[in-house]
Structure formats: C-alpha cells, structure tokens
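ok so heres the complex, two chains, lmk if somethin looks off
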Amino acid sequence: MESAFRRGAREGVRDFLPISVGLLPWAVVTGIAMRSIGLTELEALGMNLLVYAGTAQLGALPLIAAGAPLWLIMLTALALNLRFVIFSAAIAPLFAGRRWSTRLLSSYLLVDGVFAICADKAVTSDDPQWRWGYYIAPSVFNWLVWQLFVAGGVFGAEFVPSDWSLEFMVTIALMVLVLPMLRSRPMLVAALAGGLGAVLLRGLPLRLGVVAGIAIGIAAGFAAEHWQQRREAA
Amino acid sequence: MTEGLWLWLAFVLMSMTTIGTRGSFILLGEKGRLPSALQRALRYAPAAALSALVLPDLLLDGATVSPFNPKFAAGVVVVVVALRWRNPWLPFVLGMGALLMMRKGLGW
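and the predicted structre for the whole thing:
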C-alpha cells in the first residue's frame, strides 16, 4: 500500500502543477533582469540561490544598480517579503512536531504558490505524514523548476542585443505583480500613495524616497480600510 | 552599482529577510500569534513597495516629472494587456515591443 507521505506528495505536486506553469516566465525574466543591471552569471545564480524570492530580487535590482546603501536594499527586500509573515502564521500548524532543522528548510522553501494550495486542506489535515508530503514535494519541485528556468534566463540574456533596454523588464515584472493586488479600494489607495510618495520624495538622499513611499502607502491603505469600515457601519 | 563583497553581503542580508519572514511563525512553533491590527497593516506593504519602485521609473525623466515619455506609454500598454489577457508572457512581449518601437522606430 502507498504510504501517506507518498500519497500527499503526489497530490501536492498534482495540485501545484497549474500554478508552476504561470511561474516560468517569471523565472526567465528574473534571470534576464539580474544580468541586465550588470550582475555576472555567478552573482546572478548566487543571488537566486541565497535570496530565493522573485519579488524581493526584482525589487532590489534598481537599488543595487543605483548603488544604494545595504540597509536600504535589505529594508526594501523586507517590505516585499512581509506577506510571508502572514503566510507563516497561517501555515505554522502544518509543522507541529517537526524538528527545528526541518522547519528551517521548510521556511526557506515557502513560496506563494505552495502556500496557496496548502492554506486550506493541508493545514487542517489530521495526518502528519500526508500533510508533510503535500507540503514538501511541491516545494522542492518549485525550487528545482525555479532554479532551472532562472539559470536559463541568466545564460540566455547574452543573446539579447544590449541596446534593447532590457532593464525595463524589471519594471514590467513589478507592474504585473502589483496589478492583481489592486482589487480593493484600500489596496489601490496604498499603491497610489506609495508610488506618488516615492515620486514626490525622490530628492531625499540615499534613495530614501522608496522607503518613505512604502511607509506612506501602508499608512494610507490602513487609513482607507478604516474609513471604508466606518462608512459601511454608518 | 553595488559590487564585489558588498554585493554578496547585500544578498546575505536579503536572504535573512527571506528566512526571517517565511520562518517567523514556522520556527516559533505554536508559541506566537500575530496581532490582528499588525496583520491588517502588513497586507498593504507589498502593493505600496511595488508601486514605490514602479511609479518613479515610469513618471520621471531624469529628475523631473514628465508623464509623456516612452516608458510611461509602454507602462500603459502593460497595464491594458495584463488586465485584458491572462497569458503570462504577453505583458513582457508587448510592453518591451512598445518601448522598443517608440525608442528605435520613432526615435523618442
């Protein structure tokens, strides 16, 4: 009989497969984008291995290109990774009883797509072996596919003519990431306030305008949500 | 451009934000709970951050605000394409196509 772990692994990969297809252009674009700002192949692959967070990598590239200070690069990566704090809180019960090293590896591997498939059924499952298989198999699968296709972009970038303004791919990628988030009004307010704040405060030294914009955006979104709720209650 | 040892240090620091955020509650185990007000505020961080990176690139020409530039026009193309079609490659192909056409074809 098939073990619960293997059954979970098979079902997890099957549920994750459609999501992973949408991920392929991201991986290729991330690879090309890292090269477009001037990282060597080794640096690009190293960044991808260490950071393993597409959004944070793409977001940090303009700052790295501009020679921004390290703490600003880190703070921006942190802002782009903050959603994982929420995911982590939601998915933590899945790892009940697991060793610390297992939890550490699982943390590194946690990505949006795997969280999306695990969020409801795997977290509430009573079978620790099944839910572990359901988490770890698509996570490892995603890691392999991501590393492979990013490498494809990294080594393919040199075949693209250098006067093609490829760095604009970073901006396109960031736009495509933010658009689906803007379905609610507070989210739209947060994005507009954050973006316009960064534009208006562009004169601040050390590219601090970006961090100031992020803070303004979070505050504006939170305030907009508050007002919306009060209006609905009235 | 950040280079050499500083660049690798930047990667390590970024890596710490990856592990730190993803591992926050997974590593804490069942001990931690996230205050709900904080959880609600954090939801706005990604949209604010992405937009704070995108809008300056689209709206600024050097240091001055000028919405009439090839990048902004290409940005409009990306928004329309991304909202209209679900194909994940299309915004990249048509957005880059629009930018290249304006820069090279029209010399803008």
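quick notes: Residues 45-108 of chain B form one domain. thats all i got rn
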